[in-house]
Fold these 4 entries.
Entry 1:
Amino acid sequence: MQPELEAHIQRAVGRAKKHLMQNQKRSWARSVACWNDMKDSLEDAIKIGGNLLASEGNIVEPCDDEEQEIINRANKIEAHLWFDVYRWAIENDRFSARERKLVSNIYISVHRGKKFRKVNQAEGALGLMEKTRL
């Protein structure tokens, strides 16, 4: 776990513990009013940044200019072109079933507005596009 995220969690736990200790009655801690008050007291807490909420798989790795150019080239390919490649591969019995599925997944992702963020993904996509030229 990232140290900054752990610090956020520790502060929230401290605030929650302090809130629950204000009234020692067990019925208070079980009441809706208690939890609504706690929710209100935590709303002014510092918001957790998206970079701390991303899983390790979603963190964008820093890359050099050459790698960024590869990613940019892959991201310039529009969704309709991926769909055309997928249709071409089926109609002409090209690519393995795995590669056709990958092209289909790329089409869906690009159509939904997702971008390549890792150089290995971008290289794989560009490699598939290159195979259509052979």
Entry 2:
Amino acid sequence: MMVCNLRHMTTRSLAAAMVGGLLAGCGLGSTPPQGVEVCKDPASTCVLGNGMSLQTRTTPKVLVPIDLSVRDVSTSATAVRVEATMAGMSMPPVGVDLRGSGPSEWSGQLILPVCSQGRSDWQWTLITRVGSGEQRTTIQVEAAQR
């Protein structure tokens, strides 16, 4: 299993890794908007800047159920949700409330609709609720067409 830990990479080490081809599958192809993390291949596990990790059982595809899990979630989290949207698209978010599936782990199933414009650049927002507050992490995820 490939693990892409982007939060510990400096600009210099990131550039060196890209030149060396070490980030194949880690998803640094297109530049995301500021504050958006990239997860090109969530089936290989993506470690997020907040310490949590996102993984899908298979490569995300539209109209196919995507089993996903989020690990290393704060034990004080009361709810975890994933919402999928596309940047610049006026559409209601597609989302799923995840269920606790073990210590610090939440899981669920998400189905992405087909984009009428043929786009596949999804932004998943991971919403973690702790007490009366919430933490939002936006992740750029590419989804294959059927």
Entry 3:
Amino acid sequence: MADGLSIFRPATEVEKADYVDISKGYHGLMDKFLAALVKKSTEYQKRFQPYDSYSARMDFEDDMQRYINQASSVIPGQALKALKDIDLDKYGNAARFELVSIETVKEDKLLDGIRNTVTTGYYYNFKAIERGNGISLFVPMSDVPELNAVPLIEKWLKDNGFGKPNPLTGEIEKPEEKEEVVEKKVEETKGKTK
């Protein structure tokens, strides 16, 4: 007789004693981790620096699986504390990344009735060394100095030893390789002058 119909009613006080209402703000460990991960990732994006959120999530899921597998043999409080104390700043460390390429982003804009192609920013493409996943970072470019983020990332790249792009090939030259080439050319010219 019910024909798939259900009657929804609020739970009584006796029924509420044994369950947790998940619609009222209950968050599991994974939800809390993801909220912290989004906050940390946004912090790095505002500074125009790469952040490996994929590896952070995969490491957390691995740790969580390890905790589930060891739950019967480990004191639950210790393992749970280890899951909560994951350092998210290590996933933004410059040593975790390799700069692969820099691509120019161009858009067509209508200026004084004439369609022009204007450079609006750059994509800095990084590769995470640990897992090999790609990370693209858009850096906007503007004529207004306060809005131009290119100097921020250029300073970060220089401070962390990343190479500069070669304008002819588009490939990234590592600073140490460039110094070796200069030293080699200097030695070759010394040999020719003697």
Entry 4:
Amino acid sequence: MESRRFFVTVVAPDRSRLQRLRSYDLDLFRETAKVTEKTESVLGAVREAAPRETYQPTGQTSQRQEFSIDGLLSLEEIERLVEDGYQVLVKERDLKRSRAVTEGIEFQNWLKGMEE
């Protein structure tokens, strides 16, 4: 039985770790590799008249680069990457967006189908 696979985005902490993914021999989509500039705003809890805490920006921000690549991985492969320090965003099951599957038919059967 073939294991279930999922479309994912793998996020590496730096460029060298993204390049190191090649050694895992995974089904990664090379053309989707990218670096994204991220700006993060720190939120602080504010408790005023509201019965619950709300969060507002504190004015503190940080900048970082995010290195990512998309792929099609099994749960075992996802687990291994997470244990090795990568972040993996699971998007959807492979059945929803499967690769092209072709169905073969014998030439004689095809001819019979054309006559009917």
